[in-house]
Amino acid sequence: MQFLTILFIAIALAMDVFAVSVAAGVSLKRIDVRQTFRMAWHFGFFQAMMPIIGWSAGLTVRSYIERYDHWVAFILLTVVGLHMIRESFKEEDELDQRKDPTKGIVLIILAVATSIDALAIGFTFSLLKMSIWIPAVIIGVVSILFSILGLNIGKRLGQLSHVSRYAGITGGIVLILIGVEILYEHGVF
Which end of the chain is more exposed for a tag (fewer CB within 10 A), N or C? Predict the structure, then answer.
């Protein structure tokens, strides 16, 4: 897989991070360097680790599905992409104003929730017999950058629902298109 494709995957995965970071930025009265670091670090770490976990799990079942691995990858990417698109149309839950979303269990829950999609990506990379290490680093770094960007934009935005909706739709479409590209690379079309 080319660098550009991996970068697009990382950007698609970071759309959830961006949307949550924008929401956190909107809910906080002011954002300091510590809050920005905590949120960016946690999102980046979880986004980088989940593909590694998915990749490791995929190694155990890869020999059983090698003949159909491109279809499995396409289906996983499509399901994740459609899920992202569907979620973008749901009403936004307001972040709890009493809690700082850059601290404690709230931050851990947000980091895990936004990185679940990356688990499926790691599994897909395993099926495609790709190394996970460089993509995991790229996914983590892009998530850190999108988190910082989202916090700062969120601080300035008043209408969160429009931003997160478009981010989720864009991320979902990118994942589905990458799934179609995998089918094309395997000669399905």
Answer: C
Angle, CA 127 vertex, CA 18 and CA 82 arms, to 5°: 40
Burial 130-162 (b: 16+ CB within 10 A, else e): eebeebbebbbebbbbbbbbbbebbbeeeebee
Q: How far is CA 166 from CA 34, 60, 71, 91, in A?
A: 28, 36, 27, 13
Which residue, chain included where needed, has tokens 């990379």? 125
- Amino acid 148: pLDDT: 96
The pLDDT score that the predictor gives to residue 98 is: 43
Sequence-distant (≥ 6) Cβ neighbours of residue 70 within 8 angstroms = 127, 128, 182, 183, 185, 186, 188
d(CA 96, CA 110) in angstroms, rounded, equals 12
- Residues 32/35/37/41 CA torsion (nearest 10 deg): -160
User: What are the 10-residue block averages of pLDDT along the chain, 189 residues in total?
Assistant: 90 88 75 93 96 90 72 79 75 51 85 85 88 95 96 71 64 78 83
- Please name which of 78, 149, 167, 162 lies closest in space to residue 120, comparing C-alpha atoms: 78
**What residues contact residue 6 under an 8 Å CB cut-off, 6+ apart?**
134, 135, 138, 139
Where would I find the H helices in 66-159?
Answer: 69-88, 104-127, 133-156
Q: Which of 46, 26, 20, 25 is nearest to 36 (CA)?
A: 25
> Which pair of structure tokens corresponds to residue 140?
């983590």
